[in-house]
Design goal:
4 helices, globular, alpha/beta, Rossmann fold, six-stranded parallel β-sheet, 38% helix, binds flavin mononucleotide, 6 strands
Length: 142
Amino acid sequence: MPRLVIIYGTGFGNTGIMAKAIEEGAKSRGVDVVMKKILDAVPEDVENADAIAIGTPTYKAAAMPNIINFVKKLADKPVKGKVGAAFGSYGWSGEGAGIVSDMLKSYGMDVIDPDLRIKRTPEDEGIEVCRELGKLLADRIK
Ligand SMILES: Cc1cc2nc3c(=O)[nH]c(=O)nc-3n(C[C@H](O)[C@H](O)[C@H](O)COP(=O)(O)O)c2cc1C
């Protein structure tokens, strides 16, 4: 079965809500989904993935440092050609997801544009947009 791996960091839970909705959307399309918080993730988690979605909020005009460290390590993994996506919650400027998206693109991944950013806590509409991203990711790897 095609597999989507979702790895995310979150300080206050907002990016976590996005990750959960992406998971729901992908599962509704019948693909296998592995979801991990960054503290539980290892770079090897992406090896059997067909698609990789990385979530990071924006802090100090950047992505979370542990997310950046993790994504750097993917450069040595066989991710070229895999489907990718970056997403995350933000407050006012929202650079985090874009930084991750650019890193994934630099590895030759097929990254969905634009990255998905939601201001603060996702409401119903934002959650639905996240579910749609999950469905899109699933449909790309089926
Ligand atoms: C110390 C701190 C710095 C922040 N810096 C930024 C920033 O530079 N740009 C921005 O868009 N949001 C910034 N934010 C807002 C967060 O991105 C926002 O609260 C987001 O919803 C947090 O997501 P999370 O719950 O997944 O951690 C900052 C928040 C804090 C607490």
